Amino acid sequence: MKIDDLMKKAVAFHGHSCPGVAIGVLASKYILDKGNDFSIDENLVAVVENDNCSVDALQSLLGTTFGKGNLIFLDYGKNNYTFYNRNSQKAVKLSFKPKNFGDKELTREERLEMLMNSNPEDVFEIKEVKHDPPQMAKIHESIICDNCKDPTMSTRIKILNDKNLCIPCYKMLNK
Ligand SMILES: [Zn+2]
Ligand SMILES: [Zn+2]
After folding, report:
1. Residues with CB under 5 A from ligand 2 (ion)
2. Does the structure show a pLDDT above 70 at 70?
3. Does 83 reside within a domain?
4. For the chain, does the N or the C end have fewer beta carbons within 10 angstroms?
């Protein structure tokens, strides 16, 4: 697929054009061009190590979304993307190369242009990794918060003075 077409679709979802979304477009393009090994369906799982603009490209182009549970966020602050396919049992990790923008300071426009003229292989270190996708989120029972009465996933309930509290109520009352 052409990078310009992918960018157009990702920008429509994300709201603006930026180097971040271009990084996500390049990661998505690698998977889309890979064909059968990484079919674009619910068996594709993406593990991302940042929550920046790039993730919106994955959500719009690959259908890996928080709502479906096939997008997993690790708060590492890195532009690394690991994709698992539960059908083919394949996994691949794309790591943004440190030297992508060279040593000189590039403007936002220059960075965007450089990315749009690159192939995924140019900007990412790409290697096959073991197929061990993280556990998918389980559905937990809800417990009513004793303070605000919101039904709250049991794993997020905190106990204070024998009361079951949701996280915001716990923070408010535990002072
Ligand atoms: Zn952006
Ligand atoms: Zn509450």
Report:
1. 145, 147-148, 166, 169
2. yes
3. yes
4. C
